[in-house]
Amino acid sequence: MSKLFTGSNPRILITNDDGIRAPGLKILRQIAATISDDVWVVAPAEEQSGMSRALSLNSPLRARRVAEKRYAVTGTPADCVLMAINDIIEGKEPDLVLSGVNRGQNIAEDVTVSGTVAGAMQGLQMGIPSIAFSQAYGFEGRAAIKWPTAAAFGPVVLKKLLEERWSENVIMNVNFPDRDPEDVHEIEVTVQGARDQHNIRTVRREDLRGHAYYWIGFEGRPSTPAVGTDLRAIYEGRISITPLHLDLTHHETRDRLAEHMGGPVKLPEDS
Hints:
Layout: E1 12-15, H1 23-32, E2 39-44, E3 63-67, E4 70-73, H2 77-88, E5 96-103, H3 115-125, E6 130-135, H4 147-162, E7 170-176, E8 187-189, E9 200-206, E10 212-218, H5 230-235, E11 239-245, H6 251-261
Parallel strand pairs: 1-2, 1-5, 2-4, 5-6, 6-7, 8-11
Antiparallel strand pairs: 3-4, 7-11, 9-10
């Protein structure tokens, strides 16, 4: 483990999955500005929620300059990070990638589909320390999201994380609870949780010609998450920080299978 970078005024790349006009992106720029004045924004031109680490391999991408050091890309969060580092940012590479602040929590199994987490993962894969930020909202819905909580605690969390030593293959997944700033009193370092019931649903509709179409979305339901998980921390009003890495191997199963299945193999005689 080593310090993330040395010196002051790091070069920071910001992206998200809610798009270049998202309020969370503005908040993340403000958070980044507390430690640097060298902040670049390369974000999707339109919302790309749920895109995970998809890359646009079958269509060309366009980058539009919105303002100084701010660009909108017609692609996914992973596209944005890739293009920013390879083609858009002038001079040295970023010292840090920040992704978010997402409109809604990215916890438990959400992290495998989240474009916000994917932006940080793409930064990690390109050798750059990366952090994902998300602001949770509750059953009242998006309209009641408590952006001041992320704005208030984002700089605190960022500075604390940068004082620590990380493994090179880890991103930090930060989630702020659905509480007003004055009601948040604790940070918890958590593990990735798992919901105890299915919360993704499809809704069937019909157009004016009688043809079916479908919406896919999340349905909020109360659950009973385990102590120590990101789910439990958010439900109980704590800031959750979860170290995540790209290795999806289940090592216990791998070791067991290796004992029984590893070794020489012969082509079946009747093939």
